[in-house]
């Protein structure tokens, strides 16, 4: 009985870790790791680094933009709040 319970607990921990990974973006801004909640469970953009990327290229990623990467960049001082609110949504510029 204890052996079966131990297996059940191990599987529950594995599933909980998997759910956590699927439900968060792990965003590296410089050397800082920030967690950003995803709007849907997916492996897309689970690990994302802003290193060497322009603000426009970061904001062009629909999943990240919809999940609040702009707010995160403002909080970290990478873009100003004024710039963030003065720009129309980038998806309106796409052809």
Q: Name the strands of the widest sheet in spatial order.
A: 2-1-3
The helix content, as a percent range, equals 40-55%
Low-confidence stretches: none
Question: How large is the radius of gyration?
Answer: 18 Å
Which sheet architecture does the biggest sheet show?
Answer: 3 strands, mixed
* Sheet/helix structural class: alpha+beta
Distance between the termini: 61 Å
SSE order, one letter for each helix or strand: HEEEHHHH
Number of helices: 5
How many distinct folded domains?
Answer: 1
Mean pLDDT: 87
How would you describe what is shown here?
The chain has one domain (2-92). It has 5 helices and 3 strands, in the order αβββαααα. A 3-stranded mixed β-sheet has the order 2-1-3. Helices cover 47% and strands 16% of the residues. It has helices spanning 2-22, 55-59, 62-67, 69-75, 81-86; strands at residues 24-29, 32-37, 47-49. By secondary structure, it is an alpha+beta fold.
């Amino acid at each position: 009985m204890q052996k079966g319970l131990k297996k059940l607990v191990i599987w529950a921990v594995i599933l909980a870790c998997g759910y956590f990974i699927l439900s968060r973006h792990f965003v590296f801004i410089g050397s800082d790791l920030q967690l950003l909640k995803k709007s849907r469970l997916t492996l897309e953009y689970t690990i994302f680094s802003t290193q060497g990327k322009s603000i426009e290229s970061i904001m062009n990623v629909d999943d990240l933009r919809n999940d609040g990467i702009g707010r995160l960049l403002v909080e970290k001082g990478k873009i100003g709040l004024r710039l963030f609110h003065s720009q129309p949504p980038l998806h309106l510029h796409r052809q």
